[in-house]
Design brief:
Blueprint (H helix, E strand, L loop, with lengths): L2 H7 L13 H12 L10 E6 L2 H11 L2 H5 L2 E7 L9 H20 L3 E5 L7 H8 L5 E9 L13 H4 L5
Antiparallel strand pairs: 1-2, 2-4, 3-4
This protein binds flavin mononucleotide.
Length: about 170
């Protein structure tokens, strides 16, 4: 798929088929994240992939939302700060960039995704039990799978409202 078509056609998906995602397809997504822009070559993103049935079901149960239950893979995205305990805004942006690459690489292969960013906020017990993370900066969970349906394109604020061409 050409980049333009990829960027324009990608949609967040709310419901997935039960078809598993081949490991090679997932690895391609991870590689796309791996090559994202990053500040000072820090690569602050970290990913935990739950693709086995039991761990995935356990996290889906904790998340308690339908897309997590139908997802073939749940992928936790977190940030490892270069120094100290608190990620810098730049590091958080880099994790977003890696996630965007990942989501586009998935879509290119026919795999849909949905960002569930706040589902595990303030739930360190779940984060520990389901992901093996201890006090790390979890930024969200991506539900991934072959879409059962692709939602229509949502309305967008007109481009002119988001962009100003400086003379
Ligand atoms: C940081 C972030 C957080 C999001 N959180 C949610 C969410 O909690 N629930 C949800 O259904 N979609 C969530 N989304 C998906 C957006 O709703 C979706 O991207 C937006 O409606 C545009 O639709 P599209 O992705 O199909 O273009 C999130 C997206 C981003 C980038």
């Amino acid at each position: 798929m050409q980049f333009w078509q990829l960027a324009e056609s990608r949609r967040s998906c709310l419901e997935f088929e039960s078809t598993p995602i081949p490991r090679a397809a997932l690895e391609r997504c991870l590689l796309a994240a791996h090559w994202a822009v990053d500040p000072g070559r820090s690569q602050p993103w970290r990913l935990v992939i739950l693709w086995g049935e039991k761990p995935r079901a356990r996290l889906a149960e904790a998340l308690g939302v339908a897309p997590a239950h139908s997802a073939a893979v749940l992928l936790a995205v977190w940030c490892r700060p270069h120094a100290g305990d608190v990620p810098t805004p730049t590091e958080l942006l880099a994790v977003g960039a890696a996630t965007a690459n990942l989501v586009l690489a998935a879509w290119e292969q026919g795999v849909g995704s949905l960002w569930l960013p706040e589902a595990l906020l303030g739930r360190p017990d779940v984060t520990r039990a389901c992901l093996g993370l201890e006090g790390e900066h979890l930024l969200g969970v991506l539900a991934m799978g072959y879409p059962a349906a692709v939602p229509p394109r949502p309305p967008r604020v007109p481009l002119e409202q988001c962009v100003r061409w400086a003379p």
